[in-house]
Write a structure and sequence with these properties.
4-stranded parallel β-sheet, Rossmann fold, 17 helices, alpha/beta, single chain, globular, 6-stranded mixed β-sheet
């Protein structure tokens, strides 16, 4: 099946093996699938038939990966060319504690923190790295606040490719940086924030012939579409009313809209869920632009506890607007206090997530209270990263460093004798 790269702005098409991330006009690029040609080839039954089977040493990624199961809609390649770590197939949780907190009875949490390196980034990176390998790239690179660098480093190591990561100095969680270092990526700490690192890495990649694997790369977003395909399949192709997700660089917002549009066009679903993209209040350029009906393209100097979405000038801005148009979507913002309280609820349910993930839970709660989401609707919230991605934030919340921690579970100091311990325990259980 032939795919091309197509400009969102001027509709110019380029061969899929062109090493480019923008059109000559400056517009963003999509991986363009011929939906008319795909329509007779794909079906619910095709994808359902690839489910199941115990993993073994001779896995075929097209059945064990929650991305490559949908390869016709992602990147049609031979199984032997795929760089995969059995990404995807993440759990869809429900818990009465979270239903009560958000105000939605049918509330589900899709936990992308269960991917191999602990975040949704593995979905896009398996596709981006596979494409880099097919194109014979000399190396791969990204700018990152943490999760992208961890994923890039792991998949590049599997593919035997050099990896370069550009990180903002002092603005990255240790749990994420440790992964990039452990997997062997060469890490450059930039004197600036994520947006400075992103600008720099794009220029360096263009000049040195290194393959860029940020979400500016359209192949990355094709892998991230699989989150939506997996949700739809998990609901037996009867979509939820809402998909609520954290929004930073807007890659997932863009990918989700594209996945839903394609699924509807191909007859896999009959209705489109609404997308709600949730930003941290201190890093909310897309929300602020949304409030002007996108008459203004606003950028900010981002600051939030949610490091994964601490982005002030999101790359996939135009793609994300299109996703909202396709799905009658909306944008909301939540404070860091709302994020951390929601995280405490997710953690306390035994599920756990990094701070950015909890923006989707806090956003759902806020939209229900505003009457936008109705309590009898079905909502899927995306948890984008694992609890251990940012343990420092969790410890700070529960040990008194976070000033407004309403749900803190602080350690109890007690004398080292049985009677003292007994008295404390009797007050706790």
């Amino acid at each position: 099946m032939t795919i091309t790269l197509k400009c969102l702005t001027c509709q110019t098409e380029y061969p899929a093996d062109d090493v480019r991330y923008r059109c000559d006009c400056g517009g963003l690029l999509d991986v363009h699938h011929d939906l008319d040609a795909l329509r007779p080839l794909v079906s619910r039954g095709l994808f359902d038939g690839r489910l199941g089977g115990a993993p073994g040493p001779h896995d075929v990624p097209t059945t064990t990966s929650g991305v490559w199961r949908y390869r016709e809609l992602v990147l049609p390649v031979n199984a032997g060319d795929i760089v995969s770590r059995r990404e995807g197939n993440t759990a869809l949780y429900r818990h009465p504690r979270l239903s009560e907190y958000t105000g939605v009875t049918e509330f589900f949490a899709k936990h992308e923190g269960e991917n191999p390196t602990g975040s949704f980034k593995d979905r896009g990176m398996t596709v981006g790295t596979t494409q880099a390998k097919l194109m014979g790239a000399r190396a791969v690179a990204c700018a990152s606040t943490g999760n992208t660098s961890a994923s890039l480093a792991a998949y590049a190591a599997m593919a035997g490719m050099p990896a370069l990561v550009f990180i903002p100095a002092g603005k990255i969680a240790a749990g994420k940086l440790s992964q990039a270092l452990a997997y062997g990526a060469k890490t450059l700490q930039i004197d600036g924030d994520f947006d400075d690192a992103m600008t720099l890495v794009e220029k360096v990649c263009n000049e040195l012939g290194v393959y860029l694997l940020n979400s500016l790369n359209p192949f990355r977003l094709e892998g991230q579409k699989a989150i939506v395909f997996e949700i739809l399949q998990g609901f037996q192709w009867n979509p939820p009313d809402w998909i609520v997700l954290p929004a930073g660089n807007l890659g997932n917002t863009s990918a989700f809209g594209k996945a839903l549009f394609e699924a509807k066009e191909l007859g896999l679903i009959r209705k489109l869920p609404r997308i709600a993209s949730i930003q941290a209040a201190g890093a909310s350029p897309f929300y602020r632009s949304y409030k002007t009906d996108f008459r203004e393209h606003i950028t900010v100097k981002a600051e939030t506890i949610a490091t994964a979405i601490r982005i002030g000038n999101p790359v996939s801005y135009e793609r994300a607007i299109r996703a909202l148009e396709w799905t009658d979507g909306l944008v909301e913002s939540v404070t860091d206090d709302e994020i951390m309280d929601a995280k405490a609820m997710v953690d306390g349910a035994g599920i756990g997530c990094e701070p950015a993930s909890a923006a989707s839970v806090a956003g759902t709660r806020k939209l229900v209270r505003a009457g936008v989401i109705h309590p009898d609707e079905t909502v899927v919230s995306i948890l984008t990263g694992n609890l251990l991605k940012d343990p420092g934030a969790t410890v700070a919340y529960h040990t008194g460093e976070w000033e407004n921690a309403r749900l803190a579970n602080a350690p109890v100091k007690v004398a080292a004798d049985v009677d003292s311990v007994r008295r404390v325990i009797e007050t706790l259980i």
